[in-house]
Each structure stands twice: as structure tokens, then as C-alpha cells.
Amino acid sequence: NQKQEEIILSGKEVQQLMQCLPKATFVGSKIMKYQGFWYHDNHIQNVLAFQRHFQARDTDLIIASLPKTGTTWLKSLLFAVVNRAHYSTNHHQNPLLTNHPHELVYSLETDVYSKAFVYPHPHHLNELSSPRLLSTHLPYASLPESIKNSGCRILYITRNPLDTLVSLYYFSMKVMKKYFSMDVMKMILGMFYPTPSMEDFFEAFCEDRIPFGPFFDHVVGYWKESLEQPDKVLFLKYEELKDDPTIQLKRLAEFVGMPFTSQEESEGVIQQIIDMCSIKKMKELEVNKTGVINKLFEKKTYFRKGEVGDWTHHFTAPMVEKMKKLMEEKLEGTDLSY
Ligand code: A3P
After folding, report:
1. Which parts of the sequence belong to the Sulfotransferase domain (predicted)?
2. Is any ligand 1 atom within 6 A of the Cβ of residue 96?
3. Which of 139, 136, 128 is CA-nearest to residue 110?
4. pLDDT for the residue numbered 1
5. Contact 106, 278 (CB under 8 A)
6. What is the rounded CA–CA span in Å between residue 225 and residue 231?
7. Ligand 1 closest atom vs CA 170
8. Candidates 303, 310, 311, 313: which one to mutate for ligand 1, based on the most atoms within 8 Å of Cβ?
9. Which conformational region is residue 136 in: left (phi greater than 0), alpha (psi within -120 to 50 degrees), or beta?
10. What does the pLDDT read at residue 180?
11. 293-311 burial code (b ≥16 CB/10 A, e <16)
């Protein structure tokens, strides 16, 4: 169909570009470097389509993150804050109780502009009412021009890199375990074996070879924008959200132009949202226990432990020391720390 062709881009164009890109592997899957960042080879086409066709609205709210840094949690919190006037948080009609957060806040390059066109279709974006809630893993520099130049706002979340790695390891292992024998998985992620270890993930990270990374370039890119354009980019940390969710939720609500009123505060609305979006509550929901997102990822794999500091059980002292040095080097000149 003609509309799809407009968005998919010609296979030839994508092939030509992919031939020129630097290539590597990330724990067995093929990745390519585009505009300084790594992508699974099956994502390149989506990224190009997203960059070329997405038209931001001034009212859009876009979550940006590296995978496994708290995207799903932030999706649920943002949805709850923005829609709090429509659905009382303890009401059974709140869509967060009957939908996985990824079904309420669409991922742009991995869902909307996926060549698989599962759901939603890119044209569906035009039908969404404002403010549209969307998400991306692209680095700031690679975002479509219309995101940078419109009034839309970006909420970035980051997380301790070692905890992110632990989370990525378990997520990837679950996905591989379920699918690696299936042809579809090999086709989609280009996986081959042997089974990767935590050391393999760690090594890939330290060599700046992780999907959507290098990690610190991604973080510093958004961090700089949050300083230069504080009304455009809100910078959040997973650990701070865990530590004091009330303060961070107030920051979030103010940033999106919907601050909590004193009446809401005294009625306990903030705490209700925190409780509804807690990992414990999210895990208990039937909708998050079964089924898959976009025919591939089991919904339950997005909720594991949800803790700060799980890394202490997974890395040796030399590995921790190596990461500490890497952090010092890469974050020099910023006041960022984890
Ligand atoms: P762990 O694997 O460390 O438990 P992402 O959403 O970016 O894919 O990140 C997934 C990580 O966020 C997982 O971390 C997951 O458990 C955690 N997470 C998901 N929902 C959460 C919530 N409501 N509160 C806290 N953490 C959550």
C-alpha cells in the first residue's frame, strides 16, 4: 500500500546506507553505528523512518531513555499524572489497570515506526488526542528536527549503569530463552549462540558497544540539553525517583504544566499515583502478567525487581573498580554521578 511505502523507505536506500555503517556485535546480535550510536541492524530502518517522518506537536510529551533505566515506570507515572483529571486513581476504569504502560505510551522507533507495523501504525499518531505521550531511545542529537524545534517536551530518565546492565542482562536472557530457538527471533534480532554471560554484557558496555549507546554519551547529551533548555528537557534519575518519589513527581507535574494543586496534595493524590505505579502493584495486575508487546516481548519481563543496588550481587571488585574509573573519565566536567 502506497502509504506504507512512503514511511517504510525503499529497501534499496536502507541497504545502501547499512552497507556503509560500522558494524559490531552485542552479545551475539548484529549492531551498526549510525550517527555515533549503536543500533540493532533491524532497527536502522525504523530509526530512519522516525527521523524522516515524525511530526511533533507542541503539546507532545516524549520520554527518552536508554533501555532498562526505568522507561516503563516513567511511562506509568507520566500517564497517571497527565490523565489524573479523567480517571480517579483508585477507580477501576483507569487504563493503567487494564493496559501495560507500553500500550499507553508508544515507543516511536521500536513500535510506531517498526517495519513490522504491529500496532500502532504511524498514521494512527495523527488520530491521538493531545497531549500525545510517546517514547524513544534515540540520543538527543539524532532526534527528528521537529522534536528539537517544536515546543514539545522531553522527559529523560537515567539509572546507575551497573544496575542498568544487570537489568539488561536478565531481560535479554529471558527474551533469548523464550525465542532463540524460533526463526522469528533470529530474523528479528540476528541472534546466534553461545549463551552470553554477565561478563559479556559488561565488556560490551565498557567497549561502548551497547544498543542505543555509548551509555555516557547518551546521558551527557540529554543532561546538557536539560541545562541549556530546562523547559524543554527534564532530567530524572531512577535512584532519585526511588528515594523521594513525591518530590520527583511534583517536578514532573510542574514540568508538563500540570502542577498538583494544594487540594490534590492534601487529598493524597500524589501518594495514590505513586502506589498505583509501584512495581508491586504493577506486577500484580493481570494485564501485566500475560501476553506480549508487539508479538515479541513478554509483558511481565518489564517488571523484575525494581531495586537500587542489585549490582552489588553481580560484579566482582575489579569490575566495579573498572566501571568507577570509566564513570570518572566519561562524566568529567559534569556534575553527574550515580
Ligand atoms: P530491574 O530489572 O532492575 O528490576 P525499562 O522499563 O527501561 O525497560 O526498565 C526496566 C527496569 O525498570 C527493570 O529493572 C524493572 O523491574 C524496573 N521497573 C519497571 N517498573 C517499575 C516500577 N513501577 N517501579 C520501579 N521499577 C520498575
Report:
1. 58-334
2. no
3. 136
4. 42
5. no
6. 10
7. 2
8. 303
9. beta
10. 57
11. beebbbbbbbbbebebebb
Q: CA angle, corner 219, sides to 217 and 221, nearest 5?
A: 65
The answer to whether the complex's ipTM is over 0.85 is yes
Q: Check 100, 102, 137, 218 and give the catalytic one.
A: 137
Tell me if the bond preceding 318 is cis, omega within 30° of 0: no
- Residue range 2-330 forms a domain whose CATH class is alpha beta
What's the pTM value of the predicted model, to 2 decimals? 0.93
What per-residue confidence (pLDDT) applies to 14? Answer: 86
Give me 159's grid cell: 539509572
Ligand 1 close to Cβ of residue 215 (< 6 A): no
The percent helix, strand, coil of the chain (3-state, each to 5) is: 55, 10, 35
State how far the Cα of 142 lies from the Cα of 140, in Å rounded to an integer: 5
Please indicate whether residue 306, judged by its CB atom, sits closer than 6 Å to ligand 1. Answer: yes
Question: By the 8 A CB rule, do 95 and 79 touch?
Answer: yes
CB atoms within 10 A of CB 259: 15
- Cβ of 66 below 6 Å from ligand 1: no
- Written as tens digits, the pLDDT of the chain (338 aa) is 444 444 556 677 888 899 999 999 998 889 999 999 999 998 999 999 899 889 999 999 999 999 999 999 999 999 999 999 887 655 678 999 999 999 999 999 988 888 665 555 666 888 899 999 999 999 999 999 999 999 999 999 999 999 999 999 999 888 877 765 555 555 555 555 567 889 999 999 999 999 999 999 999 999 999 999 999 999 999 999 999 999 999 999 999 999 999 999 999 999 999 999 999 999 999 999 988 887 778 899 999 999 999 999 999 999 999 999 999 999 999 999 99
E strands present in 202-326: 233-237, 292-293, 297-298
Please list, in sequence order, all residues whose beta carbon lies within 8 angstroms of the beta carbon of residue 67, skipping any fewer than 6 positions away. Answer: 137, 168, 171, 211, 212
Core vs surface per residue 163-200: b (16+ CB within 10 A) or e: bbbbbbbbbbbebbeebbeeeebeebbbbeeeebebeb
DSSP state letter for 195: P
Query: d(Cα 235, Cα 260) in Å, to the nearest integer?
Result: 19
